[in-house]
User: Which sequence fits this backbone?
């Protein structure tokens, strides 16, 4: 099952991706996570990516396309994957289509999580992530039971470096200008399914699951 979760920063792609990957036993592949891992590891690639990420800009297409090409060729991705945060502009989408048509394994479905713009800011400024298990909380909308600690594993919660107001503004602009044209792109390919990304998280998971089940 080869799928893409599309949506603005804060639309819930990451949250849904983690849950759906478990349910369908395929990896969630997040370019954001791959890039953050490269930054923490201090690799050459991480050094190149860091300044763009800190500014809320896109990392160069060459870098992310290379990362994705490598990742989808690994063993655990042969039964499919959920792409989260990639593609993020038209050139990336075209590069992905080309890569997958060479493998004769085209994308099957793209799910857009549609969230009103006003809600995104609140979601992003309040977002906290568990260092241990990656669970995502929101101090405004879905706080943990004990402040600063994960409900599931008691791990410490941290705030991502790019979840501050200045950077968030840039990320949302980049989404409007560069990523949102993908909605049309995938609509033309008849692969797009649009869902409201607001409301109960489990309910959204079921709706995305129903789309995945129909592939
Ligand atoms: P969000 O979707 O919440 O902004 P991500 O974790 O997906 O968070 O991405 C964080 C940052 O990583 C982006 O702001 C950007 O700098 C970089 N990044 C992630 N995916 C891509 C991509 N496909 N192309 C270019 N840059 C990317
Ligand atoms: Zn945890």
Assistant:
């Amino acid at each position: 099952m080869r799928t893409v979760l599309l949506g603005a920063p804060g639309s819930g792609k990451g949250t849904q991706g983690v849950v759906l990957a478990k349910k369908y036993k395929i990896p969630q592949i997040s370019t954001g996570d791959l890039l953050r891992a490269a930054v923490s590891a201090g690799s050459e690639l991480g050094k190149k990516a860091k300044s763009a990420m800190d500014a809320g800009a896109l990392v160069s297409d060459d870098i992310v396309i290379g990362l994705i090409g490598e990742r989808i060729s690994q063993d655990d991705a042969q039964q499919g994957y959920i792409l989260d945060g990639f593609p993020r502009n038209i050139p990336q989408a075209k590069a992905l289509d080309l890569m997958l048509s060479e493998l004769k394994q085209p994308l099957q479905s793209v799910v857009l999580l549609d969230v009103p713009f006003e809600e995104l800011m609140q979601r992003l400024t309040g977002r906290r992530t568990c260092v241990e298990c990656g669970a995502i909380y929101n101090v405004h909308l879905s706080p943990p039971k004990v402040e600063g600690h994960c409900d599931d594993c008691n791990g410490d919660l941290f705030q991502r470096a790019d979840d501050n107001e200045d950077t968030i503004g840039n990320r949302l602009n980049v989404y409007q200008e560069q990523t949102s044209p993908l909605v049309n792109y995938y609509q033309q390919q008849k692969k797009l399914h649009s869902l409201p990304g607001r409301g109960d998280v489990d309910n959204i998971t079921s709706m995305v699951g129903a789309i995945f089940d129909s592939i």
Q: What stands out?
A: The mean pLDDT is 95. The chain has one domain: 2-27+74-214.
